[in-house]
Amino acid sequence: MTPSQQTLIRESWAQVAPIADTAATIFYDRLFELDPSLRWLFSRTDMAGQRRNLMQTLAVVVASIDRLDAIVPAVEALGRRHAGYGVEAAHFETVGQALLDTLAIGLSEAFTTEVREAWATAYGILAGVMQSGADEIAA
Predict the structure, then answer these.
(1) CB neighbours (10 Å) of residue 46?
(2) Which of 52, 83, 87, 136 suits 44 as a labelling partner, its CA being 20 to 30 A distant?
């Protein structure tokens, strides 16, 4: 991840943070639109709390974007927890698409090609770490 991409993520997040609950609602609506079968993973979930957790997690990632290695253990643990919930490797692609779609809606014209690439890169890195953590459960 380049320093320029890190800056783009921080700057774009500053525009999303004030609309955090709306953005999280858009995210989950989009996630379930992309793959309705994922609803069952949240059948016993307090979605208001889940939306808060999502946005808090993203805030931590953004705050750590220039030192992602510092959050690797926490991201691996998140992957292990998600494996326990029934999350499968294929779901990561859907989640990534839902995230990018949410940012596109929330940022509108500020969601440039460069901003999209920065977020896609960051998500790819973190999804890989989460999958590694999830793979520990499967092994």
Answers:
(1) 10
(2) 136
Three-state SS sequence of the chain? CCHHHHHHHHHHHHHHHHHHHHHHHHHHHHHHHHCHHHHHHHCCCCHHHHHHHHHHHHHHHHHCCCCHHHHHHHHHHHHHHHHHHCCCHHHHHHHHHHHHHHHHHHHHHHCCHHHHHHHHHHHHHHHHHHHHHHHHHHC
In this structure, are residues 1 and 121 in contact, taking their beta carbons and an 8 Å threshold? Answer: yes
Whole-prediction pTM: 0.93
Percentage of the chain with pLDDT > 90? 86
Please give the average per-residue pLDDT across 90-105, as a whole number.
Answer: 97
Question: Which token pair is 72?
Answer: 């690797």
Cβ-in-10-Å burial (0-12, 13-18, 19+) of 22 comes to middle
pLDDT tier, 15 (very low <50, low <70, confident <90, very high otherwise) = very high
